Amino acid sequence: MNIEVVQQVRSVLGESPVWDVARGCLHWLDLAANRYHRLNPDSGNAISHELEAEPGSLALTTAGDLVAAFEDGFWRLDPDTGMRAAIADPEADLLGNRFNDGKAGPDGAFWAGSLSRDYKNPSGTLWRLGSDGQCSAAFGDIYVSNGPAWSPAGDRFYFSDSVRGVTWDFPFADGVVGARNLFADRDAAPGYPDGAAMDAEGCLWSARWTGGCLVRFAPDGRVDRTVELPVSRVTSCAFGGPGLGTLFVTSASIGLDESELGAEPLSGSVFALNPGISGAPVGVFAG
Question: Are 264 and 210 spatial neighbours (Cβ–Cβ below 8 Å)?
Fold first, then answer.
């Protein structure tokens, strides 16, 4: 499969790619560098803003701006200026935590999970930010929150704990997450599950941290396909482009020494590939 480098950059921890149909661009974050990025793949035009705090994830809103999870809670984010406005901070008392991966769901809410900064305590929680600005906890006991995604019909929710190395699926209806089921265990694929994207056939594409690949899981949890990438720290992915036919992939350079960076000079870049399958539309925050 042909893999294209659409933005060659040495991001520290590239994450949270989101395709914007209206603007024809890809939004993404460099978490460890406190930066927001926007890329137009057709023109090559790219902009970047330094952010006031460490971000974790973002999503589009019906108002045309972005909603984002930061180390200090949920904020609205202006993609043209990088300025933000506070919404809520449900973990203001947990100084050892920060927010990580998140997405807007089919219910119009923004779902984002937290993690313990030392990765040693399961103090993370999956939070639902409603369109009214109210926060509610779905479940806790998480080391590192990653990979939220929904089935094309919106009736199944997928979520990973990267430290445990597992992906779960849950029934989902009316903004409520049901009972947890094991979807893929830690030995199902190389590396650890990081960000994820859903395709139109109901298969989950999982970015594999330290695994150097994307793995496509069938709805029954079976590994359907593995796509190798030229970097080991594959962080997340999102469908975009015309007809959502392109899969954009972020990566990281964090934790690699000079020798490893020499062997993986594209670490931190943004890639694109055509998997021959279109993506399922991603939700938009209705707040």
Answer: no
Number of domains in the chain: 1
Q: How far apart are CA 219 and CA 227, in angstroms?
A: 18
Is 253 inside any structural domain?
Answer: yes
Whole-number Å distance between alpha carbons of 35 and 44? 18
Check whether 1 has a pLDDT greater than 90: no
pLDDT in tens, 128-154: 999 999 999 999 999 999 999 999 999
Catalytic residue IDs: 194
Residue range 55-113, pLDDT digits in tens: 999 999 999 999 999 999 999 999 999 999 999 999 999 999 999 999 999 999 999 99
Residue 85, domain CATH: 2.120.10.30
The verdict on residue 284 lying in a domain is no
